[in-house]
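A brief tutorial aside. Many learners find it easier to grasp structure tokens once they have seen a single protein encoded end to end. The record that follows does exactly this for Probable transmembrane protein. Read the sequence first, then the structure, and try to relate runs of similar tokens to stretches of the chain.
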Amino acid sequence: MLINALERLALTAWAGGLWVIGYLVSPLLYRHFDDTVTAAAISGELTGAVAWLSLVCAAVLIPAQLRHRVRPIAAHWRFWLLAIMLALIAIGEFWVRPDMASLDPEAIEVSYLAALRASESIYFVASFIALVLVLGGLQPASEGNSGQD
């Protein structure tokens, strides 16, 4: 019971953080700041904070998914969605973000725009996976179902 509540809290924090920062706060920053470099810097800091929150939540959610499974691991779609989302967040935070930080956004370099599009795509896919997990729930319909889930 406590683990189920902790799972719901972690998924809520993860999905909510992704959606609020990515689809509400960041667009508002670009709308209200005349200086897009400042807006990008603040947005980058916020998405970086969400990435670290995501890593912490994944550290709770992935082991929790494994605790009551007796079927082969390949049959657990929730586990694999969490693993894919974790991989996307890690790629975005540790591979794409440092590349973007080393480039000059005012120069409108092709490599900066490519990194920005990659980052946006990763963020969109991760937030869509979060939506699927929120709608589908973290628990199987019943613990006794035989591969229906």
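Self-check: The two ends are 20 Å apart (CA to CA). If you spotted this yourself, you are ready for the next section.
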